[in-house]
TrEMBL record:
NCBIfam families in alphabetical order: PRK11300.1
Keyword GTP-binding attributed: no
Any Pfam family: BCA_ABC_TP_C
Claim: tRNA-binding is one of the keywords in the record: no
GO biological process: D-alanine transmembrane transport; L-alanine transport; L-isoleucine import across plasma membrane; L-valine import across plasma membrane
InterPro entries in UniProt: AAA+_ATPase, ABC_AA/LPS_Transport, ABC_transporter-like_ATP-bd, ABC_transporter-like_CS, BCA_ABC_TP_C, P-loop_NTPase
Source organism of the structure: Plasticicumulans acidivorans
Protein name: Branched-chain amino acid transport system ATP-binding protein
Keywords: Amino-acid transport, ATP-binding, Nucleotide-binding, Transport
Similarity section: Belongs to the ABC transporter superfamily.
ABC transporter domain: residues covered: 6-254
Length: 255
């Protein structure tokens, strides 16, 4: 059995008097697709914000492999291999699709200002590699012919796929998807389903997702954590979660 990629233990996040998240425990294994579900306001996004370094949790621990990353700033967590998309898409809207993918690689390019200034071979090679990777990911998410279109002028579903490409181009180990199917039509949701599986199978990435589309969640998740009022009420495979009385009660209400 492989050791977990992400380990979240005793996670708590308090905003003044509001305990938004409390007692959250879960692990994401390498290559796993793990979903967090729950009613609006259950605390799902807050968990994401803690894992990705947007919030510093008020208690608990987050580990990537064996290394504690709790409370580290977002850019360090991203460099360690955890990247995310957002509920409200965040692309550089006036940059083209390909430019968005080049900018995403900037922090990783193995060059410095000196080699850039003098256009040394090493700089040119790094640039060429970055462009090749951008072309690869544009193709992968079906945006090859839109490479030079401004991101803000792409259709909504295309913007969502570009956001995923922007994450993947940094070769993350864990991809956090915040409601990736929101606003997509059934055909686009089906394509998203295939894309997420492909990322996992071909690019060695584990996926942690928040999603309200239950058919997508049940279809692609290996395991699911269910939250209500900031607390865990069930964890397990889709079949286990579906037959959990507490989960049924939370979703369907009392008789
Ligand atoms: N920065 C913040 N300051 C104060 N309260 C917050 C903050 N962020 C979230 N909350 C509160 O924490 C609780 C959990 O919110 P969160 O957004 O994590 O829920 P969610 O499960 O992601 O909901 P949704 O499905 O609607 O996105 C809510 O009561 C919310 O108002």
């Amino acid at each position: 059995m492989k050791s977990p990629l992400l380990t979240v233990s005793g996670l708590q996040m308090r905003f003044g008097g509001l305990l938004a998240v409390d007692g959250i425990e879960f692990q994401v294994n390498p290559g796993e697709i793990f979903a967090i579900i729950g009613p609006n306001g259950a605390g799902k996004t807050t968990v994401f914000n803690c894992v990705s370094g947007f919030y510093r949790p008020t208690a608990g621990e987050i580990r990537l492999d064996a290394r504690a990353i709790t409370g580290q700033p977002g850019h360090r967590i991203a460099r360690a291999g955890i990247v995310r998309t957002f509920q409200n898409i965040r692309l550089f809207r006036t940059m083209t699709a390909v430019e968005n993918l080049l900018v995403a690689q900037h922090a990783q390019l193995d060059t410095n200002w000196f080699s850039g200034l003098f256009m040394l071979p090493r700089f040119r090679r790094a640039e060429r590699d970055a462009l090749e990777r951008a072309a690869y990911w544009l193709e992968k998410v079906g945006l090859r012919e839109y490479a030079n279109r401004e991101a803000g002028n792409l259709a909504y579903g295309q913007q969502r796929r570009l956001e995923i490409a922007r994450c993947m181009i940094t070769q993350p180990r864990l991809l956090l998807l915040d409601e990736p199917a929101a606003g997509l039509n059934p055909q686009e949701t089906h394509e998203l389903d295939l894309l997420i599986r492909e990322l996992r199978d071909q690019h060695d990435v584990a996926v942690l997702l928040i999603e309200h589309d239950m058919s997508l969640v049940m279809e692609i998740s290996d395991r699911i954590l269910v939250m209500e009022y900031g607390r865990p009420i069930g964890i397990g495979t889709p079949a286990e979660v579906r037959s959990n009385p507490r989960v049924i009660k939370a979703y369907l209400g009392e008789e």
